[in-house]
Amino acid sequence: MFSCLLISANQVVVPYPVYPLGVAHLLGVLRDDGHEARHFDLLSHGGLAGLEQLLTSRSFDMVGVSIRNLDTVDSNNPQGLLADILPCLELIRRSTKAPLVLGGPGFSIMPAVLLELFAADYGVVGEGEKILSWLAAELAQGRPPAQRLFYGGQDPFQWPRPRYEQEACDFYTRHGGMLNIQTKRGCPMKCTYCSYPTIEGTRLRTRDPDEVADDMDRLTREHGARYIFFTDSVFNDHGGHFRLVAEALIKKGNTTPWCAYFRPQNIKAADLHLLKRAGLQALEMGTDAATDTTLAALHKGFTFAEAVDANRLAVAAGLSCAHFIMFGGPEESPATLAEGLANLGQLAGSVIFAFTGIRILPGTALRERAIMDGLITEQDNLVEPVFYYSPQVRRQEIDEALRAAFARRQEWVYPCEEAEARVRLLHSMGHDGPLWDLLLGRGLRRSKEPLKASTPL
Description:
The protein has helices at 21-32, 47-57, 86-95, 105-109, 111-117, 129-140, 166-174, 196-200, 209-221, 241-252, 269-277, 292-297, 304-316, 334-343, 365-372, 395-406, 417-428, and strands spanning 3-8, 36-41, 62-66, 100-103, 122-125, 149-151, 178-181, 184-185, 205-206, 227-230, 258-262, 280-288, 320-327, 351-356, 358-359, 387-388, 412-413. The protein is an alpha/beta fold. The model is unreliable at 451-455 (pLDDT under 50).
């Protein structure tokens, strides 16, 4: 039997550790296709010391490494993360001659560059279920492909269900109670800065709602989840699949609270009532900008008035709501900065997280805009984090204006690393969920004992 080791290389725990869902899907298809597949997660399985012990105790025919993040994408805390992966890859190369395959969302953003940078044998861009299983079969038959880089298709979401592993689940539920589920892949939106279409494709592909509800039930009953985060790029799709998911959760009798990413458009009071019955507790809104001018420059496709209306409906439904706003993007000026800060007051009853600058990623319209504005050149590979700042306004002016405006409001957060430290502390005390709604004066969700001092994070 061909043996595969899949390694989750992510070591980021800010603001909380996130279960490696992509690898869980890969485990499902590899095992169903008759391959032996094992998962090693650097966060939950003992770090590099645990990986070295595993690699020296047994052999594998193929080793895959999932790269989740390139960097923190926060200009106030711009940490590159690729250097943290090097020791893992060096250990693999020292310990085994098995072919090394790279994948994951971070890798998919700049695959050709990272394939050469890390000297891997193969790379998979986007979803890898079918390609990785095919590659394993080819290698098992002694037919190593000459091609090194493969691109995932955009097939309907019919792969085997993700295989969540209990040891990893125990770690993640100890640090916030959360596990995650995906109900669809792809994003048809055209936001100038976003890498989702590159990673998942532009065509929306949905899962069976009853299967999603079954996963929710299984994660709660078998794996100890006390909170679920739906990882869809946008949960409230225009086609209405999200309503079918909600109905399936209600039919299943779900009582586990959950959160998801929402677009502040296509939201109705009846939808929020339905979603709340299904367990929705909090909405994270991809509002992204605070004026119609800057929203249009980001190609968001909605107005700030629509965001205000969505916020009003969420608050009226008794749901916690957070808006994520980026200042300094295309067309930002002193005038839009002042207008945007004034507009934030219309998002009453919600948390606002503000960021300055926007991480420039390959393959995005923002990269082309940055070249046109003379901020980067065609030759820049963007491996190290580079942020777009509008030439019309000084970065210092944005920072000073935000600090002055946000200092007066507990529920307005800037810079965001201050809130991240609080979330980590509350998780260590035994509280569950994202917890940003505490800034609204909501009660704590505590359902377990505090972490022991020896529990690693």
